[in-house]
Prior knowledge:
By secondary structure, the chain is an alpha+beta fold.
Amino acid sequence: MTGPMREISDITTSTLSEEILTSTQPLLLRGLVADWPLVQAGLQSAQAASSYLLRFYGGAPMITKLAAPDTGGRYFYNQDMTGFNFRNDHYRLYEVLAAIEKHASEAVPPAIYVGATAVDTWLPGLRAENDLALGERQPLVSIWIGNRSRIAAHHDVPDNIACVAVGHRRFTVFPPQQVENLYIGPLDFNPAGQAVSLVDFANPDFNQHPRFAEALNHAQIAELGPGDAIFIPSLWWHHVEALDNFNVLVNYWWRKSPDYLGSPTVALMHGILSLRDLPPEQREAWHAMFRHYVFEANEQTAAHIPPDARSALAPLDADGAQALLAQIVKRLGR
């Protein structure tokens, strides 16, 4: 029921266009990082890729997720959702790589995963030889290293380019509007900081999650090999599978909005605290207020107020955002 993703080929790390980097639809960027030395090492062997990574490693322990073989690499909640089916520990990179190699021939290995690890902190110098040209954007660049895994569908606020350096991955992505059909779990208690779909994509239970069938009608799927990349726009839900015994991915996150603007996720959480449980007529009144001041705000919203008196209703700059934040903090402290 899923459909293919739009694919762009004949592209290199130095020819990424603004059209791609500002896309509002996901894109499969075939061969984008094929010339990276890390990709070339991985094509030689897992050992060559491991040796290449260790050239840049400083030696400090890294957060490592470990899960039993019977999880099938699905990093998720435990049975009653009181905790998780994996544990976090600290290992040095060479220990992680050795463990992955040790279990590589097993049909059902324990799951081993180093995720969302800042490249510039843990592997300084790697980007000097393996990087993307993103103009003036200053992305957070992370590396993901592990064996076979399944990461539940989730979304990220920043835009994202994920580059497959070693192994193969499958991405299944959904537009933000499919949130009601993905059966999202708790916002404030989840495996890795973002709320996730409770649907097991490998074995969906349509009796328990009937609306997931509708979500699949809107899904796009992409199969990536070494050197391929995917652009995932802000807030698009994505389920990620690492398919090989050894996988390495490097991703780039950046926001289109200025750093001084607040977090929409925090606003959502505060909305739950202050609005969700109000009487229906009050929720409807606040719905109109938010529509007017936030979601449909335009140049007419405050046109009746003198420009110098519009305060928070004026276009925000860094100073205005700081002043508004100070007011929010003051009110929260009451």
